[in-house]
Structure formats: structure tokens, C-alpha cells
Amino acid sequence: MWDLAGGPPAARVADRILEKDLVVLDVDATIVVAHSEKENAAATFKHTFGFHPLGVWCDNTSELLTMALRPGNAGANTAADHIEVLTAALAQVPRAHRKKLLVRVDGAGASHALLNWLTAQDAKRGRSMQYSVGFAVTEHVRTAITAIPKKGVWSPAIDAHGDPRVEADVAEITGLLPAHVRTLWPDGMRVIARRERPHPGAQLSLFEESDGWRYQAFATNTTTGALQFLEARHRAHARVEDRIRHAKDTGLGRLPSREYAINQAWLVAVAIAADLIAWLRLLALPQRLADCEPKALRYRLLHVPARITRGARRRRLRFPRPGPGSTTSSLSSPASSPSHEPPDRPCTPSTRSHQETRTAAPRGTRSCPHPRFAVPALTQPPQGSDLADS
């Protein structure tokens, strides 16, 4: 499919387009609650019972590249699991598009083993592997933040539209960390801190209570680009939460079997369904349908009856005409079908001319879009039938 579309579309960050040949991989885990006893189901860190699968999504196409089913008590920052799913995800990316990669992980990815593995992948010939992972605000990070001058170092952060964000700043603290801490992490890793005024009701640590700012940090090996852009690029990892919600609407939210192997196969089917919807949005749907949630997409398109017809050396997908009182087809748009109103606009007298010309169904029949298919209402048994004789 990537070759059919001429390569994956470029990812967007802060209303800017990233490099066209850069493939962005987002890693995240989620909780799937089990309401009955299932194999390998266990208590989760959110005080629920079920599973803790870990997946990798392609931000360029919204594809679910791979997902590993794990018990509910699996660790969120287990480096071996992250390396396993990333290895499987790289195998799903076509070979021609593995040259420039960006891996984004939340704070669970800040492990020495994972960052060392990503650094080793970046050292391979012909491959560029950038990473952007959350970094815990430890005592060393808090000391480095305290050493930042109050003026001249903090730069205003930007929001998702690329505009300056009010009361939010970023600064690099790599050089302020102790030397023995920097040597523990891979060479070339940079640590960038972000501060913002907390929203009402936010819980702050004792360190944050002292000056009223809320602090976060992330690590990256990207050497170029403004700090504001690198920080906005990392926060764009939050889009993976939408992908997880869509996957749960496509079958991830309910595992069907008591057996672990069957549930693993179910995840494969979920990934296939998510990929089909992702490429349907990219290749075939107008923008107003491409933005729909999976539930709305099923209601407006996937569950609509249609058939493929062939003629004049062309194939057409034909949908039934809307009946009286219903809206137009979900695929028809004002630009392509000027005679039809948009689907969300109520039917007005000026748009009912084609309905009024139809012959009304005879009295005593059920309503049907066409009188030819009117079905008699069997309120009384027909004359001459066995029911009438009895």
C-alpha cells in the first residue's frame, strides 16, 4: 500500500510538515479490562483486572504496525517488551522507508536498555534512528532546573498550531546535569525541560509548589532544530491516544476467548482492521468522512449496502438511492452531486420534488422507497388461503 500511495504521507507537527521520508513510530501501552477469568489476565497498575498490551503505531498513516498481548501485571517500562515490538514494527515498514525513523515513547521508554538499542540502530549504515522519550524529573533534573538563570535561557513554547503558548517555556539542561549522570546514558542524548503554569486543581510536587511551575522533561538525540519545535514534536506523541481509542472501537476493547492464543490471534485481526480503515481514509474518503470515528464510519459507510458493477471497461460502486424521509448517501457531496443536499441538512420542500413524483404505496402496505417493492401488510388472511378457511 505504501508503494501504491507513492510512500507514506509526511507527518505534521505544530502546523509544520516534517521531512517527507521520515517515518514516525509511536509506542504506547493500554489497559484492556477482562470481565471474566481469562488465561494470563492479572491485576493492573490501575487497580483493574485484565491485560496490558503494548503496540506501535505509524503516525504518518495511523496504521497499527504491531501489538503484543501481555498480562495485566506486565511492567510499563519493560525494555525487552519495547525492543520486541519495535523490532516487529520495523519489519512491517517497507525496506525502502527504513532509512529515516523517529521513535516516540512516553516516560516508560526512558530506560538504559531501550535507549542503548535505539542508539545502536542509529549507528547502522544507511539508517537514521532518532528518538524522543519522556524523562523522569529526578533529583538531578530538579537540581539542574534550579541552576537555570531566570532570564535569558527559558524560551517560549509553542502550541499545536505553531503559535506561542502562554505561560509555557522550554530550556535545555543537558550541560547542567552532573557528569556521572551523563555518562550513564548514551552519547549524544540531550535533555530538554519544559515548564508551564498548572491548570486549576493540578497536583504539584513539593519542588513545584515552591515556584508555582509544573515541570516535565524529555530526552532526544536530534541535534538540529529549535527547542520549541523539538518539544512540540515530542508532545505530538499524544496522538497515539486517539489511535488506541480507535483500536478499542475496532475490537481491542473486548477480547473474546478464555485462551491466550486465541486472544493473540484476535489482536492480529484488530491490527488488520485498523490498517484497512487507515488506508481507506487516506486513499478513498473525502475529508469529512476521513475525520470520522470508527463508529460513525461504520454507520455512515461500512454498513451501507452496495454492490460492484462493471460496464464500459470500468468498475463502479453503486449505493441505493435514499428513500423518502432519509438523507442522501454518505459518499455524495455537494460538489460531486449538486442535485442533492448535504446529509446533515433537513429536507426542504424545494428538495422533495423527486420524492413527490413517486407513486405512493397503496393503502394497507408498509412504507417502501419504491412502490414496486411494497409489501402488503398481512392484517387479514388472504381470501382462499388455508388461514381464511379455518
Q: What attributes characterize this protein structure?
A:
single chain; 390 residues; alpha+beta; Transposase Inhibitor Protein From Tn5, Chain A, domain 1; 16 strands; disordered C terminus
Secondary structure blueprint with pairings:
Blueprint: E1 12-13, E2 16-17, E3 23-29, E4 32-33, E5 42-43, E6 49-51, E7 54-58, E8 63-68, H1 79-92, E9 100-105, H2 112-122, E10 128-135, H3 139-146, E11 155-158, E12 164-172, H4 179-182, E13 190-196, H5 206-211, E14 214-220, H6 227-235, H7 240-252, H8 260-283, H9 287-290, H10 294-302, E15 307-311, E16 314-318, H11 353-356, H12 386-389
The low-confidence parts are 328-361, 364-382, 384-390
Predict the CATH topology of the domain at 12-282: Transposase Inhibitor Protein From Tn5, Chain A, domain 1
* Gross morphology: globular
The secondary-structure element order is: EEEEEEEEHEHEHEEHEHEHHHHHEEHH
> How much of the sequence is in beta strands?
15-25%
Strand order of the largest sheet: 8-7-3-9-10-14-13-12-11
Mean pLDDT: 84
Helix content: 25-40%
Helical segment count? 12
User: Which structural category fits the helices and strands?
Assistant: alpha+beta
Largest sheet: 9 strands, mixed
The CATH superfamily of the domain at 12-282 bears the name Transposase Inhibitor Protein From Tn5, Chain A, domain 1
Radius of gyration: 28 Å
In whole angstroms, the N-to-C terminal distance is: 65 Å
Q: What top-tier CATH class of the domain at 12-282 fits best?
A: Alpha Beta
CATH architecture of the domain at 12-282, by name, is Alpha-Beta Complex
Number of E-type strands: 16
